[in-house]
C-alpha cells in the first residue's frame, strides 16, 4: 500500500522568523534577534515549569532549599529570566513586566528600536494545581527619533508589531502573530529544543457554543452582561443543545482553547472591578491582536475594539470579550438592547 507520506516540511520557529525577515528588504535582523531572545526565554521557562514540582519551585518565596539560599517563586525566576533575555539581546530598549512596578530601560542597548510588554507567568496562582500557565507578550517599535520612553509602550494595540503567548501545557505551545499577518502555532520539541510549526494560519471558527467566564462574579455584572450569559443558558443551538461552560481560570489556557475550538472568553468589567481585572498591555491587547488576526473579535466593556484602547498607565486594566466573530456580535446586540433601556 502507499507509503505514509513523511512530513518533510518541518518548519522551525527559527526558519519561520528568517523567512519573515527576508520578506522585508529593509529589515536589519534586529527584530529577528529580539524574537530569538523571546524564544530562548520561553524554552527556559518551560524547563523550570517542568521541574517546578520536582524541586519544589512552586513553594512560596522565603522557603529555603537544600543549599539554604533564598527559594524563589517560579514567577520571580521567569521574570528574571525574561528580563535578562531581553537585556542580553541588545535589541530591547524598554520592558514592561507584570512583575515590575516600573518600566525597565536597557540603557546599554544602544540603538535598540523595540519596546516589549510581558506577563512572564500569567495565571501563576494555578501553578500548584498543575493548571497550564503561560507567558503573554507584545512588541512595539519605538517612534522615529525616540530614545525609548514610557510613551513608546503606552500605545493602542493597533500599533503592535507582533504579539502572542506561550502556553506551558502538556507541551509548550507558542502562538505568534505579526501586524497584518496570520496566526501561527508552534510546539516545542524538547528533544531538539526547537519550536516546530504545527498550527499554520490558525482561524477561529465563526461560531461555537462554548462560553468561558467566571460566573462567580455574575452578581457584580452589568445587566447587559447578565442578560447575554443568561441567554446562552436558555439558548438552544441549531442541534437543540445548550452552550458548554469551560473556564480554567488561566487566561492563556482559556484563550488557546477558544482560539482552537471557538466560542467566547470574557472577563467583564463589573461593579467590583469597574476597570476590569485583566491588564491591557500584556494580557488584553496581545490576545486581541491574536484573536483579530485569526478572524475573531476582541472588545472592551464599552464594546470598543480592544486594539483601539489606549492604556492610561503601564498596568492599566480593561474588561474584555474575545472569541468567535458571530458570538461577539451577540454581545454587541445585548449591549445595544440595554443601552435602549431593555
Ligand atoms: P479569576 C490569573 O490570575 C488571571 O490573571 C488570568 O490568567 C485569568 O484569566 C484570570 O486572572 C482569572 O481570574 O477572577 O476568574 O480567578
Automatic annotation (TrEMBL):
Which residue range or ranges hold the Fructose-1-6-bisphosphatase class I N-terminal domain? 12-200
Compartment(s): Peroxisome
Protein name, as recorded = Fructose-1,6-bisphosphatase
Domain Fructose-1-6-bisphosphatase class 1 C-terminal intervals: 204-335
What protein family is recorded? Belongs to the thiolase-like superfamily. Thiolase family.
| Lineage: superkingdom | Eukaryota
Amino acid at each position: 500500500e502507499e507509503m505514509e507520506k513523511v512530513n518533510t516540511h518541518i518548519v522551525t520557529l527559527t526558519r519561520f522568523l528568517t523567512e519573515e525577515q527576508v520578506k522585508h528588504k529593509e529589515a536589519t535582523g534586529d527584530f529577528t534577534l529580539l524574537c530569538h531572545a523571546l524564544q530562548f526565554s520561553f524554552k527556559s521557562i518551560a524547563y523550570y515549569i517542568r521541574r517546578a514540582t520536582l524541586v519544589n519551585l512552586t513553594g512560596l518565596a522565603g522557603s529555603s532549599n537544600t543549599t539554604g539560599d533564598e527559594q524563589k517563586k517560579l514567577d520571580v525566576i521567569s521574570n528574571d529570566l525574561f528580563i535578562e533575555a531581553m537585556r542580553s539581546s541588545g535589541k530591547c530598549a524598554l520592558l514592561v513586566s507584570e512583575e515590575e512596578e516600573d518600566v525597565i530601560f536597557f540603557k546599554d542597548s544602544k540603538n535598540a528600536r523595540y519596546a516589549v510588554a510581558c506577563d512572564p507567568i500569567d495565571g501563576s496562582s494555578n501553578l500548584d494545581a498543575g493548571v497550564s500557565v503561560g507567558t503573554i507578550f507584545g512588541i512595539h517599535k519605538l517612534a522615529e527619533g525616540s530614545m525609548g520612553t514610557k510613551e513608546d509602550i503606552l500605545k493602542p494595540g493597533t500599533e503592535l508589531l507582533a504579539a502572542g503567548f506561550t502556553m506551558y501545557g502538556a507541551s509548550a505551545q507558542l502562538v505568534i502573530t505579526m501586524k497584518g499577518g496570520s496566526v501561527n502555532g508552534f510546539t516545542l520539541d524538547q528533544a531538539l529544543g526547537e519550536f516546530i510549526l504545527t498550527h499554520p494560519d490558525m482561524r477561529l471558527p465563526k461560531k461555537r457554543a462554548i462560553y468561558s467566564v467566571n460566573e462567580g462574579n455574575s452578581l457584580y455584572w452589568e445587566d447587559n452582561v447578565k442578560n447575554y450569559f443568561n441567554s446562552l443558558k436558555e439558548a438552544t443551538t441549531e442541534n437543540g443543545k445548550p452552550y458548554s461552560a469551560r473556564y480554567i481560570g488561566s487566561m492563556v489556557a482559556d484563550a488557546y482553547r477558544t482560539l482552537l475550538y471557538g466560542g467566547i472568553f470574557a472577563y467583564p468589567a463589573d461593579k467590583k472591578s469597574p476597570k476590569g481585572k485583566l491588564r491591557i498591555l500584556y494580557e488584553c491587547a496581545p490576545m486581541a491582536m491574536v484573536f483579530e488576526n485569526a478572524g475573531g473579535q476582541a472588545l472592551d466593556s464599552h464594546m470598543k475594539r480592544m486594539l483601539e484602547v489606549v492604556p492610561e498607565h503601564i498596568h492599566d486594566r480593561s474588561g474584555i470579550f474575545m472569541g468567535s466573530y458571530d458570538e461577539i456580535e451577540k454581545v454587541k446586540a445585548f449591549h445595544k438592547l440595554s443601552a435602549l433601556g431593555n
